[in-house]
Amino acid sequence: MEHKRIDRPAFITSVAIIVVVCIPLAMAPDTAGRILQQIYDYIAQEFGVVFLLASVAVNGFLIWLAVSRFGKVRMGAPDQAPEFDTFSWIAMLFCAGIGGGLIYWCGTEWAFYYQSPPFGAEPYSVEAAEWASTYGLFHWGFTAWAFYCLPTLAVAYPYYVKKLDHMRFSNSCHYFLPRGEIGPAARFIDFLFIMAMIGGAATSLGFSTPMIATCIAWLFDIENSFTLEVAVMFLCRPLFATSVWVGLRKGIRTLSDVKLGIGILLLLFILIVGPTAFLLKTSLNSVGVLFQNLVRMNFWSDPFTDSSFVEDWTVFYWAWWIAFAPYVGMFVARISQGRTIRQIIIGMLVFGSLGCWVFYMVVGNYALFLELEGIVRSTEIINEQNQSAAIVATLSQLPLPVIVIGVFCLMAIIFAATTYDSASYTLASSATLHLPAGDDPSRGHRVFWAFALGALPITLLFIGGLKVMQVVLLIVSVPILFVGIVMSVALVKSLHADESAASGVTVE
């Protein structure tokens, strides 16, 4: 490890957060779980509407930015070529942005909406089925990637255009930092980033680990248990560390390309051997329902019922994306040298959303088909066991189930790996004093975080699983939400100031 390059305050703060959070949670899991649930209920009820308004605001802001004259601003010199080809760039931003959470939710999320649909629809009805196949597209669509895109632009612009020699989340507020990037304000913003990134990355791995363990238990006919989940986490760690050790181009890029390739092949297999006509018709119908009700879904606050649908689902997802946004934004900023603001916005909002939608359209609608036909009752399996068991039961109905579940398990592991190696890379970048454009943090530094980031997911699984993870996400997202307002203003002011300056920004 190259100690001279490490930002010791940032490094020590990151380690301290992991230790301070994990020890109390592990020592008093019941008390911790109860307190966290109370915090979640309060924030979701009192501030839920703020999250809804933020989702509308960020989409509107990015659309304006893309169509404005600033959309042509390039991240780097005017003739700067993109560092990565388009396929690898999309693969890396997609893999960093969704992690193992996508394949955990795409096959089961519909079941919750089918049982407890929005807008007062009758459970288990045709209308409930329509909403069940549609709402996943809404939650994993434009808003998710808009939350990711904002910090991407806010970090990339000062890094590549203003030529800052370090990459930290506080770069996003560069215009307003009176004492430079090492002052108290910057340190506080980076502290919030560390909290959000650790919580977001931990939650993502917390979702994927039980699913991987369930697949392994089915494949080898062994008992699924918490011990197996912990073992999976430890066994996957060398893969994460190896990827981040090899580096951005040969490790993270290669894994992202492989994961995208495996995902495409698996989806094509399900589409071809499954109920093809049903999948195509349901997917087309879902897109239509989504766009027909997009305004309603974005602004629906459910004021006249006690369904808690918005708080349990939409607010949870918006909080998840916001908590994940600083990490994803920094990583995508790192791989976006040479691309324009417009290219970044379109690439993230359009291709990111389409990538998520395809998984929901194929895997989710296939599971819905089995439910409607009475072949696999995912709703009952989820209520009696868990989501992971429902996923395995769904995949086992396909031809060559051993191969299919084996490939799915491998894909889940690679999904988790690309999340954690990019998270490790980003955290190491943030805790590095000087990191010029195109340079990487030290290998030892990256590998350390690949191992250290596993502590919190294990703790969260131990004290309460999914619900506790939702609470953590909501808590860490609140301060990031307000930082997002500051970075939006900072980005616009920087663009205007540089445009009007004598040395202004170069526009194609």
Q: Care to describe what's here?
A:
This protein is mostly helical and 508 residues long. It has a single domain, classed as Amino acid/polyamine transporter I (Up-down Bundle). The protein has helices at 8-27, 29-67, 86-98, 101-105, 109-115, 126-139, 142-161, 184-220, 226-246, 248-273, 276-292, 294-299, 309-335, 341-372, 378-384, 387-395, 401-430, 443-452, 455-463, 466-500. Helix 8 packs across helix 13 (309-335), helix 8 packs across helix 16 and helix 13 crosses helix 20 (466-500). The longest helix has 39 residues, at 29-67. It is globular, with a radius of gyration of 22 Å. It starts with 7 loop residues before the first helix and ends in an 8-residue tail after the last helix. The relative contact order is 0.21.
SSE layout:
Blueprint: H1 8-27, H2 29-67, H3 86-98, H4 101-105, H5 109-115, H6 126-139, H7 142-161, H8 184-220, H9 226-246, H10 248-273, H11 276-292, H12 294-299, H13 309-335, H14 341-372, H15 378-384, H16 387-395, H17 401-430, H18 443-452, H19 455-463, H20 466-500
Helix pairs in contact: 1-2, 1-8, 1-19, 2-7, 2-13, 2-14, 2-20, 3-10, 3-13, 3-14, 3-17, 5-6, 6-11, 6-14, 7-13, 7-14, 7-20, 8-9, 8-13, 8-16, 8-17, 8-19, 8-20, 9-10, 9-17, 9-18, 10-17, 11-14, 13-17, 13-20, 15-16, 17-18
CATH architecture: Up-down Bundle
How many domains? The number is: 1
Helix run count: 20
Number of strands: 0
List the helices and strands in order. HHHHHHHHHHHHHHHHHHHH
CATH fold name, please? Amino acid/polyamine transporter I
Main sheet: strands, sense, barrel: none
Share of β-strand residues: under 5%
Rounded mean pLDDT is 83
Shape designation: globular
Helix content: over 70%
Helix/sheet category: mainly alpha
What's the CATH first level? Answer: Mainly Alpha
Radius of gyration: 22 Å
Termini separation: 41 Å
Low-pLDDT ranges: 504-508
